Amino acid sequence: MSAVLFYILSAMLILFSLKVVTTKNLFHSVMAAFAVLLSTAGIFFLLNAEFLGIVEILVYAGAVTILVLFVVMLTTAGPQYRITWEGTPKMWTVIFAVLFGGMLGFVVLSIDWPTARPAALTDVTRTLAMRLFTEYLLPFEVASILLLAALVGAIVLARRD
Amino acid sequence: MDSGAIIGMITLKGVLALAIGIVNIVIFIYMERKVIADMQVRFGPMRVGPHGTLQPIADVIKLLAKEDIVPAAADRLLFILAPFIAFVPAFMLYLTIPISENLVVADLPLGIFYLFGILTVVPVSVLIAGWSSHSKYALLGGLRGAAQQISYEIPLLASILGVIMLTGSFSLVDIVKAQQVPLIKLGAFTILPRWFIFLQPFGFLFYFTAALADTQRTPFDMPEAESELVQGYNTEYSSIKFALFFLGEYSNALIISALSVIIFFGGWSGFGPIPGVVWFFLKTYVFVYFIIWLRSTLPRIRIDQLMDMGWKILLPLTLVNIIVTGFLMIGR
Q1: Percentage of chain B surpassing pLDDT 70?
Q2: Of A8, B60, B77, B264, which sees the most CB atoms within 10 A?
Q3: Residue B126 in contact with residue A36, Cβ under 8 Å?
C-alpha cells in the first residue's frame, strides 16, 4: 500500500521537476514547482515525518510559491515572458550542468542511506523543540541571522530603484 | 482487518465528513440570506419551500444547469484546475474537526498545525484563478486576495500559540479536554469553566480578526470588492467551477467559526443533559451569525489600511501576547 503510494509520489515528483525546467511558460514553471513541493510533502508523510510534511506545505507550497508568483507578476518581463535559450553561452551551461550533476551524484552515492523505515515518534514537536533549542541552538540562531540579513539586503536592493 | 476493509473505513469516514461539511455550508448560505434580509427589514427568499428553506438547493441546480464558459484567452489547463485547488483543501479541513469527543475522523497529534498548513494552499488557487482568467479584474482580485491571505496567515497562527502553550499539545481533542476543568468553583458548582477565552482574551480577539481577513469576509473582502473589481478573482468563472469557489469560501468561513468554538469556547463541553454535539453546533452557529452580522453592518476597509493593520498592528500584538503568556506561565 505505502510502496504503491511512494512510487506514485516519486513519479509525480520527477515528472513535475522535469516540467519546471522544460516549460517555456514562467507561470507554468512555478505551478510545476508547487506540485513538486506537494509531492515532497506527501513523501514526508509516508516516512512518518508529519511535522516536516506540514512545514513543507505551510512554508514552501503555501508561502514561498505565492512569493515567487508575486515576483513573476511584478518583474518587468511579466508572467507572459517566454523562456528561451537564445544568448545563453552553451559551453558554460553544459560545463556547470555536468559539475552540478556530478556533485549531486557524488553526495547521493557517498551517503550510506538507511533502508529501514524509522519508527513513528510519539511526541515529535516536543522532541524537535528540545533538540533545536538545546543541542542545535547555535546553528539555529546562525540560520536565523542569515535569513534576517537576506531580508534586510532584499529590502535595501528593492528600495534603490 | 485486512487492508481492503481499512481503505473502506477511511473512505466511509471521509465521505461522512464531506457530507456533514456540505450540509452545514448549505445551512450557512440559507442563514446568511435570511439574517441579512432580516437586518435590512426584508423577508429574503420565501418562495421555494416553506420560508425559502429549499432556496440553496434551487441555487445549486441553477448553477449546475448553467453553461460552463472558458474564456478564449484563458490559460485553459490552469483555469480548469484552479477551482479544484480551492475546493479540495477546504474539504480536507473537516477531517480533523472534533464534533464531540469520539466524533472525529482523525485526531491528529498535529491537528491545528495541519489545519493551518492546508489553509495556506488556498491563496495559491486564488492567484492561479486570477492569472489564468486573462482578465484585469480577475488578476487584480487574485493579487489582492493572495497578498491579504499571506499577510494574515502569520498573525492567525501566532494568535493561537498562547493556547497551544497552555495546553502543551497541537491536538484539537486535547485542547478541548484542557478546557473541561473548572476555572472558578463555588462548592461543587462550576461558575466559570476553564475556557481559553477567559485565559487568552486578546488571543481570541487577534485570532478572530486575522481569521476574518484570511477567509476574506467583510469588512476584509477586498479581493472581491464588487464596486471596484466586478467579482474579483472568480469574475470569469461560471457554472460548477464558480460553485466550487463559492462552496470553498463558505467552507473556510464555517471552519473558522468551528475553530473559534474548539480553541476558545470549550468545543463540545456544555452543561445539563444536552449532548455535546448539540452544544458544538449551537456555539458554532452563534459565530456564523456573528460573521453574517458583521457583513451586514461594517463597511469595507481600504487595501492599504488592511496591509498596515496586518503587519504593523496585528503581528506585533500577537507576538507580545505570546511573550506575556510565556512569562505568566513561568511566574506561576
Answers
A1: 95
A2: B264
A3: no
Domain boundary residue, one of A66, A85, A104: A85
Q: Does B143 touch chain A (CB under 8 A)?
A: yes
The alpha-carbon gap from A63 to the nearest alpha carbon of chain B, in Å, equals: 7
Of the candidates B78, B114, B121, the beta carbon closest to that of A62 is on B121
* Å between B55 CA and nearest CA of chain A: 36
Give, for all 161 residues of chain A, the pLDDT tens digit: 778 888 999 999 999 999 888 887 788 888 899 999 999 999 888 887 788 888 888 888 888 888 888 877 776 666 566 777 777 778 888 899 999 999 999 998 888 877 766 666 667 777 888 888 888 999 989 999 999 999 898 888 877 76
Number of domains in chain A: 2
Q: Is residue A33 part of a domain?
A: yes
Does some domain include residue A105?
A: no
Q: Domain map of chain B by residue range?
A: 71-331
Q: How far is CA A129 from the centre of its chain?
A: 22
Residue A70 inside a domain? The answer is yes
In chain A, whose CA is at the least distance from the CA of B82?
A: A31
Which residues in chain A are contacts of B110 at CB distance < 8 A? Answer: 50-51, 54, 124-125
CA dihedral B187, B190, B192, B193 (to 10 degrees): 130
Name the residue of chain A whose CA is nearest to B165's CA.
A126
Query: What are the grid coordinates assigned to B201, written together?
Result: 482574551
Shortest CB distance from A66 goes to which of B3, B113, B150? B150
Q: Residue A41's closest chain B neighbor by CA?
A: B117
Find where cell 478546557 sits. Answer: B179
CB atoms within 10 A of CB B22: 16
Q: CB of A64 within 8 Å of any CB in chain B?
A: no
CA distance A61 to chain B (A): 7
- As a whole number of angstroms, the distance between CA B126 and CA A125 comes to 31
Query: For residues A58 and A62, what is the distance between their CA atoms, to the nearest angstrom?
Result: 5
- Tell me if chain A has a CB within 8 Å of the CB of B243: no
In 3D, which of B217, B183, B314, B199 has the Cα closest to residue B263? B199
Q: State the average pLDDT over residues B311-318.
A: 89
- Residue A134's domain spans which residues? 121-161
Residue of A nearest to B4 (CA): A1
| pTM: predicted TM-score of the whole model, two decimal places | 0.83
Residue A37 located in a structural domain: yes
For residue B191, the 8-state DSSP code is: E
B3: nearest CB among A1, A27, A124: A1
CA distance A148 to A155: 11
Q: With contacts defined as CB-CB under 8 Å, which chain A residues touch B153?
A: 62-63
- If asked whether residues A7 and A52 sit together in one domain, one would say yes
